[in-house]
Known about the structure:
By secondary structure, chain A is α+β, with helices and mostly antiparallel strands. In chain A, 27% of the residues lie in helices and 33% in strands. A 3-stranded mixed β-sheet of chain A has the order 2-1-6, with helices on one face. A 3-stranded antiparallel β-sheet of chain A has the order 4-3-5, with no helix packed on it.
Amino acid sequence: MHEMSLAENILQIVEGAALDQGLQRVTEVRLEIGTLSGVEPEALRLCLEIVFKGSLAEEARVELIEIVGKGWCLSCQTEVTLHALYDPCPQCGKYPVQVTGGSEMRVKDLLAE
Amino acid sequence: MCTVCGCGQGETKIEGQTHVHGSGHAHTHADGTTHSHSHNHEHHHDRPHHYGLGPAHAHAPGLSQARMVRIEQDILGQNNRHAAANRQRFREHGQFAVNLVSSPGSGKTTLLVETIRRLGDTTPLAVIEGDQQTQFDADRIRATGAIALQINTGKGCHLDAHMVGHALDTLDLADDSLVLIENVGNLVCPAAFDLGEAHKVVILSVTEGEDKPLKYPDMFHAADLMLLNKIDLLPHLRFDVARCMEYAHRVNPNLVVIQVSATSGEGLDAWIAWLRHGMEHAQAIRLETVAALKQRVAELEAQLRTT
Ligand SMILES: Nc1nc2c(ncn2[C@@H]2O[C@H](COP(=O)(O)OP(=O)(O)OP(=O)(O)O)[C@@H](O)[C@H]2O)c(=O)[nH]1
Ligand SMILES: [Mg+2]
Ligand SMILES: [Zn+2]
């Protein structure tokens, strides 16, 4: 994945909010990352550490909230848990399963002063 | 300036120039408002940007306590806003834009050169070339006589909608043009970055193995058309075309597949027909919009006369 550009985008969102709301220092950043988003959590943490250096979020703790992959199986007509994109339905083994959750990549909130 | 215009990536170069804003352009803000401004500057963002989110300022002066600020923003939201602006622009001008994605060396540039030759110089078109380094691919396109613009992404592994928006400013294309965008050779990252194109076209060459659609499913899922290239080499390889198509359809049941050889020309007629169809469709939408606007103006004029 492209964790570096994601990290840059996250910093931009944080800096935008800081300007908007007059924040001096960000102490925590909470991100919602779906398990089907393709994001490598450890790689993202590493990139954030690099990107946050010298910014108002330099010392921010990063919390990653995992959102479990979910899909709608067209054959079973039920919601099922998905571990990978484009996997078959874990109940009936058929395709396709329409992804209904787990591809999120969002900045949820901040703790800031 | 405007933080939506995320010009933080200082490494991007368009035609060898460090990316500088030279002309006016419109920005769409997170709150949905759009404004245009003309500017000529290296990127500095000096004006606060209003996201319109988060709680009202519960500022108690002198109280420097950590507080929670709600953000709820998509990490790729900014790219998506730029992409929407590009898409709107293509639509207004009847331009048909395709985003060609593949791993390095699958034959994108060779295919584009051959495509341009076959479309002939009566078809208005331009190519936007994305590579980390060098102008080689844009030079290969220009050798055909077509307009090409090179974007170098530096360490960036994909084009983004913002870079493409600037390329469009520079190109200032004619109405009803075909816009061919060759993305950076990479089967992973470009899948996540909408450029505002009508379709992503994934190119897979038979030397890469038939398992690629399953190994890199995001790209095959995001594409609407797959060009299976270098089929002239099939007699020399053990590549199972049927299995490759089955894998591709597993991740994307609606994927259209055209088998081609950019060097022998096999299958290219079908690809050219696909492009021409897309161009006609884009032009038809523009003409419909123009006709609707004209009718509206005529109605308003008639109303004015009767009152
Ligand atoms: N045999 C054969 N070779 C091809 C075909 N298409 C392209 N090639 C060769 O494949 C090599 C790479 O082609 P390019 O067109 O540069 O590939 P590309 O996808 O633009 O590469 P990057 O921009 O570096 O990602 C060149 O040596 C081409 O001559 C084809 O249909 N058949
Ligand atoms: Mg190329
Ligand atoms: Zn099922």
